[in-house]
Amino acid sequence: MMEHNQETLQGLLQELIRLPSETEWVEFKHNNADPEIIGQNISALANSAALYGKKSAYVLWGIEDNTHQILGTTFNPGAARHKQQALENWLLQKLKPKINFCFHVFLSSNEKQIVILEIQPASHTPVRFDGTEFIRVQSSTKKLREFTEKERELWRVFDRQPFEQTVAKSENSVETVFQLINVNGYFELLSQPMPSTREEQLKALEQDGVICQSESKHWDITHLGAVLFAKKLSDFPSLARKTVRLIQYKGSNKLETFREVEFNQGYAVDYENIIRTLTLILPSNEEIGSVFRREVPMYPELALRELIANAIIHQDFTLSGTSPMIEVFEHRIEITNPGVPLVAVDRFVDNPPRSRNEGIAALLRRMNICEERGSGIDKVVMQTEIYQLPAPLFEVFTEHTRSVLFAYRDFKNTDRNERIRACYLHSVLKYLSREPMSNASLRERFGIDVDNSAMVSRVIKQTIEAKMIKPYDETAGTKSRRYIPFWA
């Protein structure tokens, strides 16, 4: 939603009052500024704008409904209050999910005060006001549940239009596009020479869905473009709370924060900066070689890269007020993203993930930021085995997914659940390599001598009891027995 100057607002006013009547996405008022009605109208107009494919919906104050005569209004949204709160703040609290809307106050050409409320269309889910979804039926505001055909069609619209293709900021000039989007970074990350003219540069951005041309021949910046290439995510109201946060704590809990960093650029532009900052704050382990001592990272960088890329790609952008977060504790790292996975947790390694954001994933693959095949979890597990770290943990909560990497611990200091998890993930890696897991391969994974093979046998038995693995051949003798994942 763009900033409008006086001239642009007057032009918008003339365009809207030329409409023959109110529509599903335009409402005219004189002075009626009842907060409840405004909230219902925002919900209804946002949903209707999505249903009819409009870039914005509008409420105009200072206009006579029937004649569209410019009368002026006494409504002042900046000074309006409701239930001891500023009107705009109260509306924001009542609307779910949060959408962008903006009151524009200006003088018409005949010096009358006009207020235009500009409303972002709904995306992915209908907008509710105070728990109820509304819709426009011709010029009336109604409850959406009373019009089932419109409700079904609205959901079909959401299914057809991914979040990445929706507009983050509309009606931008060429200069504004270059102010908001890191165009140099776009070409550098794709390893492409930058065209010599702005026209060619804009064409390349348009082909990749970073921008699209509006009906007025201005440029709309898509959420895909803003998410990946914004110079500042805070320039886009719908993404201001989507910045990646890196928090380092003292000790193993969240009681005391040692350091916090927020990355405000687009994810593609800031990705290497995120990795660099994280690796700088992480401690190292001292490894003693045959002649020299050397410092090795506590966590494999490749695993960190894959997990952070996954958190960015698979997040649910429709969840408001939450963003990807990297939390560093004394002996573990937790990487959390909004949204639950579309693939079962115990199938992360063998199944290519399904992403809500295929456009973002495709561009990040072309930039070599994430796995070309779309799955890096097998590499994460493999790296933890090479470093002989405890197996990574993947957790799903009501609205979030979390991946946890643990610092090195001796086998004797790991618990039963950690050993079962490591055994299962090792069996998956071996199965994907077309060879079943054995006692010997699991001993090697844990770094255990052959003299202590009985310890590994106990882990295998516990993992079978947990129904995570099964024998490859039930008739094989104990010493030659091999194992595969439960689903194989």
Describe the structure.
This protein is of the alpha+beta class and 488 residues long. It has 15 helices and 24 strands. Strands 15-14-18-19-21-20 form a 6-stranded mixed β-sheet, with helices on one face. The two termini are 51 Å apart. The model has no long low-confidence stretch (mean pLDDT 90).
Provide a compact summary of the structure.
By secondary structure, this protein is α+β, with helices and mostly antiparallel strands.
Structural class: alpha+beta
Which spans of ≥5 residues are poorly predicted at pLDDT below 50? none
Helix fraction, binned, reads: 25-40%
**β-strand number:** 24
User: Largest beta sheet, briefly?
Assistant: 6 strands, mixed
User: Could you give the distance between the termini?
Assistant: 51 Å
Shape estimate: elongated
Q: Compute the CA-based radius of gyration.
A: 28 Å
Total DSSP helices: 15
What fraction of the residues are assigned to beta strands by DSSP?
Answer: 15-25%
Strand order of the largest sheet: 15-14-18-19-21-20
Mean pLDDT: 90
